[in-house]
Amino acid sequence: MRDLIRHWLMTVLPVSRRVLLHRYPYMHSPAQLMTLLATLDEAITAVPAGAVVEVGCAAGHTTVMLARHLRDRGHRGPYLAFDTFGGFTAEDKASEAASGRPAERLTGFTKNSRQWVAWTLAQNKTVPVQLVQADAGRADYAEIPGAIAFVLLDVDVERPTAHTLRQLWRRLAPGGIILLDDCRLNADGSPALSGKFGGGHAALLDWARETGVPFDYAAGKYAIIRKT
């Protein structure tokens, strides 16, 4: 009996806790979410009917939060979310490894599907979100209609970040904003580029040097590019 109780406590109870108890669903801290929403509000105020674009939406938790916020704000522009819905591509893993970053750790986000994210959005009464299954390193983003107000770029690795910046900066309306996730600084203030998700940050720095476009760091892990 004692062994049965021990087995129940060690196996069944932890599973029940994960199912029944609330778990914080976001990959952003509350302070970072506040920065994200404030930046989104700034962009859609400047470009009221512009498109909101999310590149790298994973399971759609942040997508739901942003789409509910846009519904509450009465935003009239389209919302498009791009993702492979299957994790990192083999090409991206090879590119990260060639750059000396720990590509063997790029194993997440594989247990996902476009249909699951669509179901998640449907049950949360958001604004309509067009889900586009695509490799962000090759996408031409032709599905995005009109001007773009805001881009949340969160694909973590170098190749798709570089391609997306080149493609979407041209389409971004004056007053629009691109916000990149996972752009962290070391304790001495230097860019953190060698970690698991340092590739996107490296792509941003290369793009900024090529174009001369300035950006700001914010909230401990964001880079914010404003089109004046």
What is this entry, summarized?
By secondary structure, the chain is of the alpha/beta class.
- Please give the count of helices: 7
Q: In CATH, what is the homologous superfamily?
A: Vaccinia Virus protein VP39
- Report strand order across the widest sheet: 3-2-1-4-5-7-6
The largest sheet, given as strand count, sense and whether it forms a barrel, is:
7 strands, mixed
Mean pLDDT: 88
Number of strands: 7
Q: What structural class do you assign from the helix and strand content?
A: alpha/beta
Task: Describe, in plain words, how this protein is organized in 3D.
The chain contains seven helices and seven strands; from the N terminus they run H-H-E-H-E-H-H-E-E-H-E-H-E-E. With about 230 residues, it is α/β, with parallel strands linked by helices. It has one domain (about 30-225): Vaccinia Virus protein VP39 (Rossmann fold). Helix 3 links the parallel strand 1 and strand 2. Helix 6 (about 160-170) packs across helix 7 (about 200-210). The mean pLDDT is about 90.
